[in-house]
Amino acid sequence: MTDLDRLAAEKYVLLTTFRKDGSAVPTPVWAVRDGDSLAVWTAADSGKVKRIRRDGTVTVAPCDVRGRPRGTAVPGHAVLSSAEETKRVRDLIKRKYRLLGRLSLLGSRLRRGERGTIGIRISVQE
């Protein structure tokens, strides 16, 4: 099983982005497989989006809901998704996380609107 397969099968992954000073900022997120990459979905104005916009260097590790790592972190490179790609990520989240995913997406759309969230595509370095 590849790192990508293992991470895509997890309920939560710990996405770690890096500040300008190099300090790590870990965040537990839902993740889905999107072709040869991992995809996550988040608020468009979040700190992780700003950090990825500046530098796409990330690590990804399996974790629990509170962000406690449950495995080894894997290096990767993250890029922000277009509106079309973000829609696909939302659909994949609905499929994987079922009712909870649908409710989370609905609540987010009501609070932030369609443009208030963005997909992040992560290429995992095997």
TrEMBL record:
Entry-linked InterPro entries: F420H2_bilvrd_red/Heme_oxyg, PPOX_F420-dep_Rv2061_put, Pyridox_Oxase_N, Split_barrel_FMN-bd
UniProt name for this protein: Pyridoxamine 5'-phosphate oxidase N-terminal domain-containing protein
GO CC aspect terms: cytosol
Keyword Oxidoreductase recorded: yes
Species annotation: Micromonospora palomenae
Occurrences of domain Pyridoxamine 5'-phosphate oxidase N-terminal (ranges): 6-93
One Gene Ontology MF term: coenzyme F420 binding
Gene3D superfamilies: Electron Transport, Fmn-binding Protein, Chain A
Keyword Oxidoreductase part of the UniProt annotation: yes
